[in-house]
Design brief:
Layout: E1 8-15, H1 18-28, E2 32-39, E3 42-51, E4 60-65, E5 78-86, H2 91-100, E6 105-110, E7 113-119, E8 125-130, E9 152-159, H3 163-172, E10 177-182, E11 185-189, E12 197-201, E13 215-222, H4 225-237, E14 246-247, E15 252-257, E16 263-268, H5 296-302
Parallel strand pairs: 1-4, 5-8, 9-12, 13-16
Antiparallel strand pairs: 1-13, 2-3, 3-4, 5-9, 6-7, 7-8, 10-11, 11-12, 14-15, 15-16
Length: 315
Amino acid sequence: MTKQTAGIHHITAFASDAQANADFYAGILGLRLVKKTVNFDAPEVYHLYFGNEMGSPGTAMTFFPFQGGRKGRVGGGQVGYTTFVVPLDALPFWEKRLDRFAIPYARTERFGETYLQFKDWDGLQLELVARKQGPNSRWSFGGVPADKAIKGFGGAVLYSIAPDKTMYTLEHLMGMERTSEDQGLVRYKAPGELGNLIDVNASVMNRGHGGSGTVHHIAWRARDVEDQEQWRSLVAEQGFQTTRIVDRQYFTSIYFREAGEILFEIATDSPGFMRDEPFETLGEKLMLPAWLEPHRAQISEGLPPLKIRVLEEDQ
């Protein structure tokens, strides 16, 4: 039997301004900043993690905010839409909320579900869908009560330069089930409760380019390092070049670029975001790995100020 991922672990995107990014994802969307750290490969840049009350696997949307970085273009080789899931009765609340913040949105239908599609302030394409499946978030912030809050990922829409090959990888490597087709999209299902429905645009997409408003990579779930090592062997057997296992402090990761040019990561569910902060104060302090701690003063001085705040519209 083909090995199966439970679904999405996290999605990482580029942003242009750290405070604006925090205002949108915490202030408007009501997600919790569960970790404030830096890009370990470029420590002059934040790495911000937003999710449910503890950033559980399947809920964490993460960002590299490059101040003054180039604007990206959404296209082939990327996640086209990041899908968030909310409780069954919550879409009317979110329509009113998007209106309150003057965020344009479109109401669309596919696979028998209603989606609200909109963009963040950098142009990243997002959508909300209401489903019963998956535990509710226990986090409430600003004008978003817990019973209307984003639960985590519903899934994603993938844009590929070789969709047949991308779909083959989802089915025959990642172990997802092809379930249906609608409006030029092919749906795949993973067994998890969150981040488990992946739609692939069946048309060949022109290449996008990275920058603010685009997704850098999509990460899939592995249970632990032993499971991840098995994934690494399977990825190599499929002919993909894979990285070594990389320690990201809150999970370990491997990376490979599938044939449709989308960067895939496979990340472990553990140890999670409470390995270096208690639940009550997650995301409040700049957290650095041990090898960067001696440079804390220099790193902190180079990062822009960042505050999680209730926005004026909610006061």
